[in-house]
Amino acid sequence: KRFYSLKVAPKVSPSATAEKVKLSPASQNLEITKLPNGLVIASLENFSPASRIGVFIKTGSRYETTSNLGTTHLLRLASNLTTKGASSFRITRGIEAVGGSLSVHATREKMAYSVVCLRDYVDTVMEYLLNVTTAPEFRPWEVADLQPQLKVDKAIAFQNPQVGVLENLHAAAYKNALANPLYCPDYRVGKITSEQLHHFVQNNFTSSRMALVGIGIKHSTLKQVAEQFLNIRSGAGAPGAKAVYRGGEIRKQSSDSLVHAAVVAEGAVIGSKEADAFSVLQYVLGAGPLVKRGSKVTCKLTQGVAKATSKPFDVSAFNVNYSDSGLFGIYTISQAPDAGEVIKAALNQVKAVAQGGVTDADVTVAKNQLKANYLMSVETSKGLLNEIGSEALVSGTHTSPSAAAQKIDSVTTADVVNAAKKFISGKKSMAATGDLGNTPFLDEL
Amino acid sequence: MLSVAARAGPFAPFVSAAAHAVPGPLRPLAPAATHRDRKVPLEPKRLLLCRESLSGRAARGGLVASTSLNAQASVRCVHNDVTVPDFSAYRREDVQDATASSQSSSDSRKGFSYLMTAATGVATAYVAKNVVTQFISSLSASADVLALSKIEIKLSDIPEGKNMAFKWRGKPLFVRHRTQAEISQEAAVDVSQLRDPQHDLDRVKKPEWVILVGVCTHLGCVPIANAGDFGGYYCPCHGSHYDASGRIRKGPAPLNLEVPVYQFVGDDTVVVG
Q1: Mean pLDDT over all residues of chain B?
Q2: How many inter-chain contacts (A to B, CB under 8 Å) are there?
Q3: CA nearest A73: which of A142, A147, A170, A163?
Q4: Would you call A288 an interface residue with chain B, using a CB distance cutoff of 8 Å?
Q5: Where is the Rieske domain (chain B) (predicted)?
Q6: A203 and A256: one domain?
């Protein structure tokens, strides 16, 4: 086995310009295979001292029904409960003993169980990962003991007002599926049963909806593991309902002096050409700070809102893509008295772009920012694992970073303007929290 | 697959609900363990009122909720400015060159190390054995006790035909200077007729000197010299007759008189014991 360490990294001459710089002479490219039962296996052997393996499953809160809301939240928390091959104590102790970690990341559409460990201990930790994803037992007493944790987890998450706003936004924008909250509703805490968890896992954790991804591990090892252990449930599982956009608004009045508001319209589907256009539009309008303590000179939204108010605020373009729908709009944080002006100013900026008020230079700047952000996100092994896994789940292939950069470059200014037009003309949804005395309703915008 | 991983994508680490989180601007600290009924103290809200503290807080992408078995407790940085110190002062000559393989000299290096270790081990074992035996042998008999176990006898003090008795190890020691007649008489005795068959010459080193332990082999009395029917010793207790060689001839004793370990040192001295 080879190990990669900073000290023995070979000196790369700066004249090697367009060539891909390899981490070590024997570093390999990404290998991706799709088994006949639909399971996708992807791995990148970069000889890193730490390996990261993830099981990605195309399931999430959108696959819940009104009778079993909150199941995915409990499933997230139940990742270290007893399984058929290992008890809860053994999983926790075993993973800790080798210095690894087990985590579950979930969005509305996918769940990722990932383990990180030193490469010597991959076998141990892989055993636990497979146990957790394929053979959980959900013993009734363990599940019952875990239910109070739902409340704590939710309380900690909702300390950030953004979480509440985004949950409300989805509940307002969609009729079903994507409207389901990521966090368990209060009335369901204590009522989720072990049978519901089992049922959910049986119907959703099927081979055709899973991807096994590894970084720092050989492809043959992963393939062998997948063929032996991840073949248990075949079939497509329960199909989710198609998300239907409705466009509503939810307002939560509280005593918070800061108003968080999101105004969105239906956006683009993952992987479509439109999605690229919306991403570039997001960066044209402004998607977060790029320079620490900078004044966001290139961010149209910030510049526009700064003319409307002098008090502290923050605004950014909001963009999220799902497999059959998406949301695009603006997210603002403002002082309670100024909320109306801030939101209107931000929407005016988007209107300006829709009317063609964007230059090629702006679009190029935005493309560069987007490319930089994307490429930097796949620099870490965590980001890279997420990227490979998500793409493997959606399409079973992998786009190399340079191909992705080219896709970004192929977006034209006209595409960006059209995307802005789609937002302006689309049916809006809104969610707001805080002291909403001065926050306009959707029909007032 | 651009829109998947662009900052707007589902896994944008903007807001994540972690059970144990790295403290950052948007990640509240979480309590370690929860009990069903205990109240969990949450981090009090911090008012965000200035431009810098608000910067970056607007949501850009979808929510990702995450829980972890053991999340990081601190922020890890890449320490790529750490230099490895120069250890060349401690290296052997064979491995001074950092670019050459160390395999070619590994046999000789290992051999030297093992040889030194083995030699030191042997020397240590030798020293240890000596030290231990010195301590343990100090528990055995001391020199004055050992000295009492030997007796030195001056032979010129004993005239011919005379039997002298000495006290040795608590027992009487008979040293008899035999005449030639006695010697030839004892040599001529038929060994097969004896109760304890032993030839005279087997019992003595020099035929004129016979050294015996003067304890009767019957029940332990001291025989009288120059008495008895055979010209040797006679035990008065039960009537055992010994000859001039100390062999039993008549009487209840089963064995001949014991011949101790002795050595002639020089012409004139014998050391018994």
Answers
A1: 79
A2: 223
A3: A147
A4: yes
A5: 186-271
A6: no
Q: What pLDDT is recorded for position A233?
A: 81
Domain shared by A262 and A198, yes or no:
no
Among residues A198, A229, A260, the one where a domain terminates is: A229
User: Rounded to two decimals, what is the model's pTM?
Assistant: 0.65
Q: Which of B67, B80, B83 to mutate to test the interface with A (most CBs of A within 10 A)?
A: B67
Q: Do A377 and B15 touch (CB under 8 A)?
A: no
Instruction: Beginning with the edge strand found earlier in the chain, give each strand of the sheet holding A31-34 in spatial order.
Output: A31-34, A40-44, A210-215, A50-57, A111-118, A101-106, B64-68, B16-17
Number of domain units in chain A:
2
Average the pLDDT over B74-87 and give the result: 67
Distance (Å, rounded) from C-alpha B247 to C-alpha B224?
14
Using the Cβ of B54 and the Cβ atoms of chain A, whether some distance falls under 8 Å is answered with yes
Confidence label for B7 from pLDDT (cuts 50, 70 and 90): very low
> Percent of chain A scored above 90 by pLDDT?
73
Query: By the CB < 8 Å criterion, does A407 face chain B?
Result: yes
CATH of the domain at A205: 3.30.830.10
Do the strands A40-44 and A31-34 form a parallel or antiparallel pair, or are they unpaired? antiparallel
Instruction: Assess if residue A236 is contained within a domain.
Output: no
Instruction: Measure CB to CB from residue A319 to each of B42, B61, B70 and give the nearest one.
Output: B61
Exposure string for A153-174, b = 16+ CB within 10 A, e = fewer = bbebbbbbbbbbbbbbbbbbbb
The ipTM, to two decimals, is: 0.74
Catalytic residue positions of B? 238
Residues A166 and A269 in one domain: no
The answer to whether A409 faces chain B, any CB pair under 8 Å, is no
Instruction: Give the closest residue to A316 by CA, choosing from B54, B49, B65.
Output: B54
> Are A373 and B56 an interchain contact pair (Cβ–Cβ within 8 Å)?
no
Q: Does B7 touch chain A (CB under 8 A)?
A: yes
Identity of the residue in A7, A107, A312 whose CB atom sits nearest the CB atom of B62 = A107
Q: Is residue A237 part of a domain?
A: no
Residues 6+ apart with CB under 8 A from A184: A69, A70, A73, A74, A150, A154, A192
DSSP secondary-structure letter at A208?
G
**Tell me: the pLDDT tens digits for B175-205?**
999 999 888 888 888 888 888 888 888 889 9
Task: Output A185 or B59, whichever has higher pLDDT.
Answer: A185
Query: Which site among A96, A103, A180, A373 would you substitute to test the B interface, given the most B Cβ atoms closer than 10 Å to its Cβ?
Result: A103
Q: Does A257 touch chain B (CB under 8 A)?
A: yes
Mark whether A310 and A225 lie in a shared domain.
Answer: no
pLDDT, tens only, A263-293 = 999 999 998 999 999 999 999 999 888 887 7
CA A259 to chain centre: 25
A259 within domain boundaries:
yes
Residues in chain B within 8 Å Cβ distance of A78? none
The pLDDT-based confidence of A8 (bands split at 50, 70, 90) is low
Domain ranges of chain B: 106-140, 148-272
Q: Pick the last residue of a domain from A229, A256, A271.
A: A229
DSSP state at residue A289: -
Q: Which structural domain range is residue A413 located in?
A: 247-434
* A208 and A299 share one domain: no
> Taking residues A217-236, what's their average pLDDT?
87
Q: Within a domain: residue A234?
A: no
Question: Does any CB of chain A come closer than 8 Å to the CB of residue B3?
Answer: yes
Please give the CATH number for the structural domain made up of B148-272: 2.102.10.10
Report the residue of B22, B47, B63 to disrupt the A interface, i.e. the one with the largest count of A CBs within 10 Å: B63
Name the residue in chain B with its Cα closest to that of A277: B3
Task: Write out chain B residues lying below 8 Å of A279, CB-based.
Answer: 2-3, 6, 8
* Distance from C-alpha of A349 to C-alpha of A131, rounded to nearest angstrom: 51
